[in-house]
Write a structure and sequence with these properties.
This protein is α+β, with helices and mostly antiparallel strands. The chain has five helices and five strands. The strands form two sheets. A three-stranded mixed beta sheet has the order 1-2-3, with helices on one face. It has a two-stranded antiparallel ribbon with strand order 4-5. Strand 1 and strand 2 form a beta hairpin. The longest helix is centred in the first third of the chain and has 26 residues. It is elongated, with a radius of gyration of 37 Å. The protein starts with about 25 loop residues before the first helix and ends with a strand.
Length: about 220
C-alpha cells in the first residue's frame, strides 16, 4: 500500500507558524483544539484508506467478501478471512505446483506443507504437518474450487522430529575362506633393488554377508 502522500506524524499546526505564537496562551489553546480535530480526521482517513487494500483491510473485509460472493464470518481472524478472499481473486490462475504450494500453505501455520506430483496417475499427494493446519475446511473448499477436474488428491499427515535414528544389526552366521597365494610366480626387477618374494592371488570370490536387522 503506497500512501506516501498522507501525513504519518501527529498533527502540530504550531510547527508551521512563528515560534513566538506558541507563547501566547489563547492562541496556543486554539491551536491545541485544532490539532486534536485534525489528528482525529487524519487517523480516520488512514483507516479508510487501509480498507481499500486486502492486506490491511479490517472492518472493510465484509465488503471484499461480499464482492467475492463469500459469506462473512466475523468469528474468523483477519488473516483467514483475507486468505479466503485472495483464493477467490486468484481463481483465474493456472494451477501449477507453485500455485498449489502457495494455496496449501495459507492454511499451514509454519508453511511446511508440500506436494508430490503423480500426474501419470492423475493425482497428487498433499503433505500436511500434524496439528498445524489452521482451517482444514477452507483448505478443502479451495482445493475443490481450483483443482482441475481430472486430478485427484490425497492428504498425507506427517510429524517432523529433530532427532537421529540409529539402525544396527549383528552377523548371525558366517563362513571363513582362506585363499592361498601362488608363491612360485617370478618377478623380474630391472634395477639396483633386490627382488622380494611375493605372491599373487590367482583366483578369488566376493562374498556378501547379510546381517539380521533388529526392528
Amino acid at each position: 500500500m503506497n500512501n506516501i502522500w498522507l501525513r504519518k506524524n501527529e498533527v502540530d499546526i504550531l510547527r508551521y507558524l512563528p515560534y513566538f505564537l506558541s507563547k501566547e496562551p489563547t492562541f496556543k489553546s486554539v491551536n491545541a483544539a485544532d490539532n486534536a480535530e485534525h489528528e482525529r480526521l487524519r487517523l480516520q482517513i488512514q483507516e479508510c484508506l487501509e480498507q481499500l487494500f486486502l492486506e490491511t483491510a479490517t472492518w472493510g473485509l465484509r465488503l471484499w467478501e461480499e464482492y467475492c460472493g463469500l459469506q462473512s464470518d466475523e468469528t474468523l481472524d483477519y488473516k483467514t478471512r483475507r486468505n479466503r478472499v485472495l483464493d477467490v481473486l486468484n481463481g483465474t490462475e493456472t494451477v501449477t505446483k507453485d500455485f498449489l504450494l502457495t494455496l496449501i500453505n495459507r492454511y499451514v501455520a509454519d508453511k511446511s506443507g508440500s506436494v508430490i506430483e503423480h500426474y501419470d496417475q492423475y493425482y497428487i499427494d498433499i503433505l500436511l504437518p500434524d496439528g498445524k493446519v489452521t482451517s482444514f475446511v477452507d483448505l478443502e473448499k479451495n482445493l475443490r474450487t481450483f483443482m482441475p477436474a481430472h486430478l485427484g488428491w490425497k492428504y498425507v499427515a506427517f510429524s517432523g522430529v529433530n532427532d537421529y535414528v540409529n539402525v544396527s544389526g549383528i552377523v548371525s552366521g558366517c563362513r571363513e575362506f582362506s585363499i592361498m597365494a601362488d608363491t612360485s610366480y617370478d618377478l623380474l626387477i630391472d634395477g639396483p633393488a633386490e627382488p622380494v618374494a611375493t605372491g599373487i592371488v590367482m583366483q578369488g570370490y566376493e562374498i556378501t554377508i547379510e546381517p539380521d536387522l533388529f526392528k
